[in-house]
């Protein structure tokens, strides 16, 4: 920024002081000059000349702060000059041009237009006054035309220059206002983005921590009760607690590591999007629920300290990058159900339809919604609930249903309302889905999640509204039913396999040998099913 820009800003901030100083300097030069000029031209009253000059100079300090008022006072002093019969011009009469320029640039439109009309009228009056002193009519006409034209052209030139300056000033002010509005909008967008990012991080942390702690609590309670009779079971419970805690820690590190590498990503051009699509990333083994990599069963002995399972730390200089382990998606629901089943809860997973790839983030949404629903069952469903998870892949919609026959939320209100259901609805809304929750008619709780997905290749579009199936007539191609008229062309479509029939209710399968909790020990007769089954 140059010195002239700084001076211009200082000039704008101190308008009155600058104009007052300018008026004093001009007054010291013009007032004596006006008196001397009139004395030399035969007008002997120098005091009257000095008074008129000072009167025209007095409004000058307000020419930019109060341009309309300043112009009125200056033009009034000039009119008084004409009414006194003083035909000769004073040097301070040039201040009329300064006043016209100031009111044109800084004043309202009506003010500078009125000043211009007054200037033209004053030019005509001045020409008439000087022409009346001419010796002959021809000389008077020439003086009138010359004086009026010269004065009018001077005023018009100053007015035109003022209009150009006014237009430039208005353009600059409009650009400054627009820049300020854009800056405010940018700050607002940054605040909105920050709030959205905080909400996203809060949802992720809630899902990770709540699910992991629920599993840890269930395993810890089971290990405490089984420790007196089966020390090996207590050891296995501690191993499960350790693995779950390490998995949650790895997820938290991966989540918070993105926040710590923003500056590094901006400098190197390797942001989260680039890390997600890094070469070879999709070829890595799928992590278990919580973000850990597949590994063998933990032994009963203590584990040596080291990095969390599945962590792939990479460094750039001294900065530690977040792990490149892919996020879980809908394909990891089996691992999630297995982990919850290890806590002693009877869970069955049923898949219907043809699975397909989902948009980025949609698979994680399905996983998190199912994880939150199972976590709520662990916390609120009571002892020995039976849970059914049904994933239905439709033509253009994915449905997830999680039902249990437990008691639902605690009746004593010991569990404060959290943000799990709100987080599920927010996640679903991002991808145009919806979540409905509520008690089941036969007891228990129900969670329904629906989300639009890409259409299955080759599937026929949905039929338009028409007559019922009973009124449909066969088409020439031999098709029957309402779909006979919904086919745009006779091209064969890829058949969709019929959904498998879910197994009839019966005794649950024996849980894995390495899990404990509310399960039946190996070698004993399983308990009778709970009477709160699905009707």
From TrEMBL:
Any single Gene Ontology cellular-component annotation: membrane
Q: Does the keyword Nucleus apply?
A: no
The Histidine kinase/HSP90-like ATPase domain sits at 361-455
Catalytic activity as recorded in UniProt: ATP + protein L-histidine = ADP + protein N-phospho-L-histidine
The Enzyme Commission number assigned here is 2.7.13.3
Instruction: Write out the biased-composition intervals (Low complexity).
Output: 446-459, 513-525
Which chain regions cross the lipid bilayer?
20-39, 74-103, 115-134, 140-164
Keyword Transmembrane tagged = yes
Name the Gene Ontology molecular function terms of this record.
Answer: ATP binding; phosphorelay sensor kinase activity; protein dimerization activity
Q: Which stretches are tagged as biased composition: Pro residues? A: 495-512
Keyword terms: ATP-binding, Kinase, Membrane, Nucleotide-binding, Phosphoprotein, Transferase, Transmembrane, Transmembrane helix, Two-component regulatory system
Renumbered residue ranges of the record's region Disordered: 267-334, 439-535
Kindly give the PANTHER family that the UniProt entry links to this protein. Answer: NITRATE/NITRITE SENSOR PROTEIN NARX-RELATED (PTHR24421), NITRATE_NITRITE SENSOR PROTEIN NARQ (PTHR24421:SF10)
Q: Specify the protein name.
A: histidine kinase
Q: Which species is the source of this protein?
A: Oerskovia douganii
């Amino acid at each position: 920024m140059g010195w002239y820009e700084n001076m211009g800003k200082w000039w704008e901030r101190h308008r009155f002081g600058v104009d007052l100083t300018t008026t004093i300097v001009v007054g010291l030069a013009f007032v004596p000059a006006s008196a001397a000029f009139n004395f030399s031209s035969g007008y002997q009253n120098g005091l009257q000349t000095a008074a008129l000059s000072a009167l025209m100079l007095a409004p000058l300090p307000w020419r930019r702060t109060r341009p309309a008022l300043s112009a009125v006072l200056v033009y009034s002093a000039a009119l008084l000059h004409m009414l006194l019969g003083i035909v000769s011009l004073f040097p301070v009469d040039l201040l009329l041009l300064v006043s016209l320029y100031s009111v044109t640039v800084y004043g309202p439109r009506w003010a500078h237009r009125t000043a211009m009309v007054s200037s033209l009228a004053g030019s005509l009056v001045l020409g008439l006054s000087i022409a009346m002193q001419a010796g002959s009519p021809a000389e008077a006409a020439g003086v009138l035309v010359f004086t009026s034209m010269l004065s009018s052209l001077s005023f018009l030139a100053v007015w035109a220059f003022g209009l150009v300056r006014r237009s430039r000033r208005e353009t600059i002010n409009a650009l400054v206002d627009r820049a300020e509005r854009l800056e405010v909008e940018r700050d607002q967008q940054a605040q909105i983005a920050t709030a959205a990012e905080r909400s996203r991080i809060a949802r992720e942390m809630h899902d990770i921590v709540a699910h992991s702690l629920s599993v840890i609590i269930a395993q810890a309670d089971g290990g405490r009760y089984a420790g007196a009779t089966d020390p090996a079971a207590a050891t296995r419970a501690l191993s499960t607690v350790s693995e779950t805690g390490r998995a949650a820690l790895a997820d938290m590190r991966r989540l918070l590591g993105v926040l710590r590498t923003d500056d590094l990503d901006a400098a190197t051009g390797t942001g989260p999007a680039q890390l997600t699509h890094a070469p070879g990333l999709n070829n890595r083994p799928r992590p278990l629920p919580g973000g850990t990599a597949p590994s063998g069963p933990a032994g009963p002995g203590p584990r040596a300290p080291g990095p969390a399972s599945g962590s792939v730390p990479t460094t750039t200089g001294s900065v530690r990058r977040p792990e490149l382990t892919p996020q879980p998606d809908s394909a990891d629901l089996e691992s999630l159900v297995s982990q919850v089943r290890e806590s002693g809860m009877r869970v069955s997973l049923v898949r219907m339809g043809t699975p397909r790839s989902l948009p980025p983030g949609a698979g994680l949404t399905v996983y998190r919604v199912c994880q939150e629903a199972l976590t709520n069952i662990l916390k609120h469903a009571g002892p020995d609930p039976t849970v059914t998870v049904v994933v239905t892949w439709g033509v253009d919609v994915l449905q997830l249903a999680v039902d249990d026959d437990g008691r639902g939320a605690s009746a004593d209100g010991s569990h404060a309302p959290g943000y799990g259901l709100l987080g599920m609805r927010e996640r679903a809304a991002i991808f145009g889905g919806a979540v409905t929750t509520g008690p089941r008619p036969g007891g228990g709780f129900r969670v329904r999640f629906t989300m639009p997905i890409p259409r299955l290749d080759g599937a026929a579009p949905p039929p338009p509204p028409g007559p019922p199936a009973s009124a449909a007539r066969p088409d020439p191609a031999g098709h029957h039913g309402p779909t006979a008229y919904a086919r745009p062309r006779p091209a064969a479509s890829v058949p969709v396999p019929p959904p498998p029939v879910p197994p009839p209710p019966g005794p649950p399968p024996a849980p894995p040998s390495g899990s404990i909790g509310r399960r039946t020990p190996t070698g004993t007769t399983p308990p009778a099913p709970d009477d709160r089954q699905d009707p």
